[in-house]
Specification:
By secondary structure, the chain is of the alpha/beta class. The protein is built from 14 helices and 18 strands. The strands form four sheets. The chain has a nine-stranded mixed β-sheet, sandwiched between helices. The protein has a five-stranded mixed β-sheet with strand order 14-13-15-16-17. The protein is globular. The chain starts with 10 loop residues before the first strand and ends with a strand.
Length: 382
């Protein structure tokens, strides 16, 4: 990245991983946090709005409660989060206050970004914090989230926040300096990838898993985050956060991987649809329907070959091509039971099958986001 590259962005979301903030033995890494806050203050002074998605509540609470490295039960994780969140929020507040900045804590659960009304409420709160000159510090509400209703990692949460707030850039600070052609810890011949133009299946195949019990993420979740962000027009950077002043290090040209935003991003209402993390079901369609969706048409029942899941009308479902690849997401117009009954039928036959006049489309094009056709291309710098 060029010098002062980050200051060129109007709004930046920065995600901080647990392993960066918390030492297993000593707890919170206060010097590191102070250096990151100085970076945030510098970007803020240059006119950027900065939103932080901070992991670390469970890791810090684990340390404060003396729970060690063992796998925690759900209720122990929730208790650790309750203790750690107070300490974490206080540390962010203190360090930003030293630099003349006010922080605002925002705790979210999966439903706060997946349910439309709550999504809009969360966006309004964070937007108001920006207007008042505060730095939003966001984390998943681990004290109440369970396995079934959690994001599972803060990489995807950060991407969801970045797209919700229409950030120009998402920065994922991690314990690795970017994407490699293979996990470098397992493959000494792995090559660093400085620029990714599009996240293709070939790019996804390069991903590995999380390397620390303090972290729930890994390169795979970072690529998932990248797909959410870049589809909405938000650029993404994966960079090492192990050094002091990690944002300044990116501007100095230290290694990082830049993911280019889509040249045809989804906007507004469709950003919410495209960013849904867990679809309620899946529709497998035929090649003819794939072509129709690519040309901007609605998904009709005639093109549906299989229906999976127990979704309700209005839920987000994934649309799969015959080879199993996801090509779209949308808000389905039928409950799963009725979708099964009309799959493969022509529009004129739907009313006779269901016994009432119904919508012609399984998913209307206004409620549908089609994934652009991707090429297996990466761009490497000299």
């Amino acid at each position: 990245m060029a010098a002062n590259a980050l200051s060129a962005y109007r709004r930046v979301t920065v995600k901080v991983g647990s392993a960066l903030l918390v030492d297993r033995e000593r707890g919170l890494k206060r010097d590191w946090l102070a250096s990151l806050c100085a970076d945030v203050a510098g970007l803020s002074a240059a006119g950027a709005e900065i939103c932080v998605v901070s992991s670390g509540a469970i890791a810090l609470g684990r340390n404060l409660l003396g729970l060690g490295r063992r796998t925690l039960k759900l209720e122990e994780s929730q208790a650790a989060a309750a203790v750690g969140q107070i300490a974490l929020a206080g540390a962010w507040s203190e360090e930003l206050d030293r630099l003349g900045l006010v922080s605002g804590q925002v705790l979210v659960t999966l439903g706060d970004t997946e349910e439309r009304r709550r999504y809009l409420n969360a966006r309004a709160t964070i937007s108001t914090l920006f207007k008042l000159g505060a730095v939003p510090v966001i984390n998943e509400n681990d004290t109440v989230a369970t396995t079934e209703i959690r994001y599972g990692d803060n990489d995807r949460l950060a991407a969801r926040v970045a797209t919700m707030m229409q950030s120009d850039l998402l920065v994922l600070l991690s314990d690795i300096d970017g994407l490699y052609t293979a996990p470098p810890a397992r493959d000494p011949a792995a090559r660093f990838v400085p620029v990714v133009d599009a996240i293709t299946p070939q790019i996804e195949a390069m991903a590995g898993e999380a390397a620390s019990e303090l972290s729930r993420g890994g390169m795979r979740t970072k690529l998932d985050a990248g797909k959410i962000a870049t589809r909405a027009g938000t650029a993404m950077i994966i960079a090492s956060g192990t050094r002091l002043s990690p944002l300044a290090a990116i501007d100095r040209g230290e290694p990082s991987t830049f993911f280019a935003p889509s040249p045809t991003p989804v906007r507004g209402y469709k950003t919410w649809i495209a960013g849904q993390l867990e679809p309620a079901g899946r529709l497998v369609i035929d090649d003819g329907a794939v072509g129709a969706l690519r040309s901007g048409k609605s998904l009709l029942p005639a093109g549906v070959r299989a229906v999976e899941g127990g979704f309700a009308r209005g839920d987000t479902v994934a649309v799969l091509a015959p080879d199993g690849s996801e090509i779209a997401r949308g808000l389905v117009a039928y409950d799963a039971a009725d979708a099964v009954r009309i799959a493969g039928l022509k529009s004129a036959d739907i009313a006779r099958e269901l016994g009432y006049e119904a919508r012609a489309a399984m998913i209307h094009r206004d409620d549908l986001v089609v994934t652009p056709a991707l090429s297996a291309r990466t761009q490497a710098s000299d």
